[in-house]
Amino acid sequence: MFIYLRLLKESFTFAVNALRNNKLRTFLSLLGVTIGIFSIIAVLAAVDSLEKEIKGSLSSLDNSTVIIMRFSFGPTDVPQWKRQQFPDVSYDEYQHLKRSLPDLEAVSYVIGVPSESIKYRDVTSENVDVGAVTSEYYDIEAFELREGRFFNESESVSGSPVIVLGHEIANNLFGNSNPLGQEVRLYGRKMQVIGVLEKQGSSLFGNSRDGQAFVPVNLVRRIYGDNNKGVFPQIVLKPEDGVDNAEFVAMVEGQLRNYRAIKPGETNNFFINQLQGFADFIDNITGQMNIIGLIISGFSLLVGGFGIANIMFVSVKERTNLIGIQKSLGAKNRFILFQFLFEAVILSVIGGLIGLFLVWVVSIIASQFTGDFEFVLSLWNLMLGTIVAAVIGLISGIIPAISASKLDPVEAIRTGF
């Protein structure tokens, strides 16, 4: 055991001496490993960060959530001309599903409307993302209220002039003042503030809830009507825990087909979008990005491996006389083999650590310029980079190490002279 520790120490010393005595040669040789490890870990970190941000943006909704609308989240076999003829989901269909579906925890009717301005006295917040929803939306979304409450079913059905503000909108309009009970103007109407949402932070998909305001859907229906193609109605459903998602979707499809009198064999004129399917789609995309990035980065590592192999062949040639002396003094072949293998691994790991350090620096700088988007450099990626560097060193150094271990001691000493 002690002899291998001593061997490791000597190999490290040889590696450091190689760095000191042949700075340019060593730098060029390690540059490939450094760039390769940097490329691989940078790609993995970027994809992990993107995936975390996407899933964080979707985390407010449960993966079992189902959204019915005339648009599809992903690719579809239905031709565009036919999709354009699909009718919007209606408030009556929302009520029908609410009455008839079993195993339903909550269902909400939501209308996507254009951004609006909200005014309070002399202060105006522009481009506010207005969410027109029924009261059940509070049970579907993971809302956290900083103060006040969400509107109830009675206010939702009657279309009462009440509003719940996002954190940023409330701060813009009221500053440090208490917004509850105050009246703001939206759609040219006075609306009473009954709640303020907790701060969420930025979101990858458009505005976060900080820049939103929520109002009863029936109030918006009276303004826009039920046949306005400038808005996007949808029905959002959340099944009870433990319900089989496929069976639930089949029940939703059957109920809506019956309500719309769609005959057997006819194509649905609506889309049932599942967040679980969207999450799987995101996982598939990020997986493909990882594979493509790894393939491209692999070429850099291949060049780096050749660089390590080259420096090890040169190192064997330079130390041929020393190898002969070691073997004449009783050093076994495996001792020489491990000596050069350790040196190759140490050199490669040094290059890999430099690459990891550069990724860490770049991730810090990038995070400063991307606001709330955080680049994730996980411990697993750091370990992976170190392991890959060590493996590259091992593979690159095996042939030079074998050639060194098989040298004849007499010929090796004679070559040195």
Automatic annotation (TrEMBL):
Entry GO MF terms: transmembrane transporter activity
Chief location of this protein within or outside the cell: membrane
Gene Ontology CC annotation, any one: plasma membrane
Pfam family, one: MacB_PCD
Places the protein is found: Cell membrane
Location of the ABC3 transporter permease C-terminal domain: 295-409
Domain MacB-like periplasmic core positions: 26-253
InterPro entries from the UniProt entry: ABC3_permease_C, MacB_PCD, Macrolide_Exporter_MacB
Keywords noted in UniProt: Cell membrane, Membrane, Transmembrane, Transmembrane helix
Mode of membrane association: Multi-pass membrane protein
Transmembrane segments: 27-47, 291-314, 335-362, 382-404
The keyword Transmembrane helix appears for this protein: yes
Protein family according to the UniProt entry: Belongs to the ABC-4 integral membrane protein family.
Protein name: Putative ABC transport system permease protein
Species lineage: Bacteria, Pseudomonadati, Bacteroidota, Flavobacteriia, Flavobacteriales
